[in-house]
Every structure is written in structure tokens, then in C-alpha cells.
Specification:
Layout (H helix, E strand, L loop, with lengths): L1 H38 L4 H21 L4 H19 L4 H19 L13 H8 L7 H17 L4 H21 L2 H16 L8 H14 L6 H11 L5 H13 L9 H16 L1 H4 L1
Helix pairs in contact: 1-2, 2-3, 3-4, 3-6, 4-6, 5-7, 6-7, 6-8, 7-8, 8-9, 8-10, 9-10, 10-11, 10-12, 11-12
């Protein structure tokens, strides 16, 4: 009887675990639809509230299923996007903290790939060597981890650690370009355009190369991903004092139709908001 009792308890526990895994897998699939719905939401305030609550819910599911790659990607992308959209311009301290949280989730996701399965290397040389062994299927994890890390660096340029980290992020974004330059509307090109355009030439900046990256990103998105125009204006037109181009780029964003990029209305709304804000900074920039 004791043996049967133990067997019965074991069966119940195993069944319970199996049901939990099935439930988590099903819920993760539903979250994918939720992410799509958020990207399609044009109202920034509604999106801000929804993303914040959903991120905490995702973290709860992540604790229950820490090896779930989809959950890790949602968390990496979610915290990085939330920081960019709603914190970077108004609360850089909180944005920095969330960028690092996103990066760390991205690191956890990278460790699911073969090159990083033993952990994130502490040396730059070893990190870069492992990047060469990543595959195209690793691009989402690589891009969003690098995006989050670069967001923190941008807000902490006065810190020595940011200068050191930038070399690694550059290598990560270079690898994204090698594997899939069109990922997320040419996001790696936006990174390079911003870096090369914001740094003085004497320190390694290159306005013309920055322009080439922005133009390539526009080609990859057929000119529909409006954030490219915003970054183009901020990190090329303004530093080169091209006032006419600056105005033209921002006008394109502000006057564009809300549905120019179907299913990404949130990014369109965000680009319009940032374009309007950037236009108010024109006197300081020029």
C-alpha cells in the first residue's frame, strides 16, 4: 500500500508539472499575439500602461519557466522598448536601470545559444570570438541585447565603463549586419548611423558613413519606419548643420500617415512624438 501511495503521489506530481508546462507554453503563444497588439496600438498612453503591466506579468512567467526563450526575448525587447519610448527623454536614471535589465535578459537568452552556453565572457577578446560563431537564428537575441546595452551607454557617456562597453556593442551590431542587416527595419544600421554621426571626426566619427547607414536603413524599410528619419535628423543633419535636411526629415515624419507601417502604429506614433520634440530643440542644435 505504501508503494502504491508513493507511486500515486509521483504520478500526480508529474501530471501537475506536465500541465504547468503545457499551460506556460500556451500562455507564451498568447503573449506573442499580445506583443503584436501592442505594436499595433497608436495611442502612446494606452501602450505605456499596457506594456508596464505586461512586463511584470512576463517576469512572473519567466520565474516559472526560466529556460523559455520566447519569454526572455519578450522581456529583453519589452524593457528596452519601454525605456526608449517612455523614459529616455524624461527620466534617464530609470531608463538606464531598465536598459540594463533588458540587457541582462538578453544575456540570459544569448546563453541559450551554443557559443555562449558556458556564460558571458568577461574579456572583450573572448566575447568577440564567440560572436563569430553565432548564427542567423541568434540575431533577435543579439540585436536586442546590443540595443539595450547601447541605450545604457548613450545615457552614461561620461562613465569610463560606457566607453569600454561600446567596443563590445559595436562588435555585436557588426555581427547583426553580417547575419541579417534588415532585422527590425535595419536597426543595426540605425545604431551605426547614430554612433558615427554623434562622435566628432577626431574621435572616430564619420558623418558621411553615418549618412550611408541611415540611407541603407531607409531602403530596407522602404522609408516606412519613421524612427529612421528622426535619428537621421538628430545624428546627421544636426551635427553637420544641415538645417534644410533637418527640417525636411522631421516634416516627413510629422506629416506621414498613421498607418504608413501597418501593425507598427506604436512605432509611428513614437516617431512623430520624438520628431515634434526634436523640432523644439532646433535653436539649441543649430
Amino acid at each position: 500500500m505504501k508503494y502504491l501511495w508513493v507511486v500515486g503521489i509521483t504520478v500526480v506530481l508529474l501530471t501537475s508539472c506536465s500541465l504547468q508546462r503545457i499551460a506556460l507554453k500556451t500562455t507564451t503563444g498568447l503573449f506573442a499575439y499580445g506583443v503584436e497588439a501592442l505594436y499595433a496600438e497608436p495611442d502612446l498612453e494606452l501602450a505605456k500602461t499596457a506594456i508596464a503591466s505586461n512586463l511584470k506579468l512576463l517576469e512572473g512567467f519567466h520565474r516559472a519557466d526560466p529556460n523559455n526563450k520566447e519569454l526572455l526575448l519578450f522581456l529583453t525587447q519589452g524593457y528596452a522598448s519601454y525605456s526608449l519610448a517612455f523614459l529616455e527623454d524624461t527620466d534617464p536614471k530609470r531608463a538606464s536601470a531598465f536598459y540594463l535589465r533588458a540587457r541582462d535578459y538578453g544575456f540570459q537568452l544569448l546563453q541559450k545559444s551554443s557559443p555562449f552556453k558556458k556564460g558571458i565572457p568577461q574579456t572583450e577578446a573572448e566575447f568577440k570570438e564567440k560572436l563569430t560563431r553565432l548564427k542567423k537564428s541568434d540575431v533577435p537575441a543579439l540585436f536586442w541585447a546590443a540595443f539595450a546595452w547601447s541605450g545604457w551607454i548613450n545615457l552614461n557617456r561620461d562613465k569610463p565603463q560606457a566607453v569600454f562597453d561600446l567596443n563590445i556593442v559595436k562588435a555585436m551590431m557588426n555581427r547583426v549586419l553580417e547575419l541579417d542587416e534588415g532585422y527590425f527595419f535595419g536597426g543595426a544600421h540605425l545604431f551605426w548611423g547614430s554612433i558615427l554621426g554623434s562622435i566628432p571626426p577626431m574621435l572616430g566619427g564619420n558623418p558621411e558613413k553615418a549618412k550611408q547607414h541611415f540611407q541603407r536603413a531607409l531602403e530596407l524599410s522602404d522609408g516606412k519606419f519613421l524612427m529612421t528619419f528622426v535619428y537621421y535628423a538628430r545624428f546627421y543633419a544636426a551635427p553637420t548643420l544641415n538645417e534644410e535636411l533637418f527640417d525636411s526629415l522631421l516634416d516627413k515624419v510629422i506629416s506621414a500617415k498613421q498607418d504608413i507601417l501597418p501593425n507598427y502604429e506604436l512605432m509611428t506614433s513614437l516617431a512623430k512624438q520624438k520628431a515634434r520634440w526634436l523640432a523644439t530643440q532646433k535653436e539649441e542644435l543649430f
